[in-house]
Prior knowledge:
Elements: H1 2-40, H2 59-62, H3 74-90, H4 95-107, H5 135-151, H6 157-171, H7 173-185, H8 192-196
Helix pairs in contact: 3-5, 4-5, 4-6, 5-6, 6-7
Amino acid sequence: MTEKISNKLLVVLALTLFVVAFNSYKLGQLGDTVRISGVTGSAVAAGSIVPTGIPVVYGQEMGVSYDDISPNDPYTTDATIRKVGQYDMDIELTPAQNERYVNILYFMENGISCEYCCGARAIIFENGDPACGCAHSYAMRGIAKYLITKHGNEYTDAEILEEVGKWKTLFFPGQIQQKAAILQQKGIETSYINLASNKYRGIEQGQTAGSGMVGGC
Length: 217
């Protein structure tokens, strides 16, 4: 009798361990899906807004990775910001390219700014001239100019704005994480355009401040 009870207990224990292991596996798969969709999808999971890896189209040719921007490595961070920002100073746009540049950074979704570092309406003026002198804005303008001139046929204006938004997210992860949480609460898609452009600028005001910016201003 005692032996039968022991055997039954062993069976129950084995089934319990199997269920626990299976549930842990499925939860792990779900977690991976959230992290991946946060980087590659149009909507970014609020818990994983910071892009990682090498930008697919231009990363290798520019010699940059999203991972180069990190609060744990200020030297590489500042060097990468300078490298990307140099394109802003070196690239001269044609009138047609400048028109597109202005549309992306000034008009589309009310433009994109460096509001956590300076108070400019956008990182450029309506004519395309720089409106903010911080290192982050040089880098964002550099990304836009590079993609317009080197990969203009591969990216739509919205996709270029989204790419610039990814870099802004790297520069201000705490503030934009906070913004993502507010957008989710309001049922608004957490795309990089919604997170980083001026479309919902200031929506996170009044909340507890997030972690500081990455890289010098």
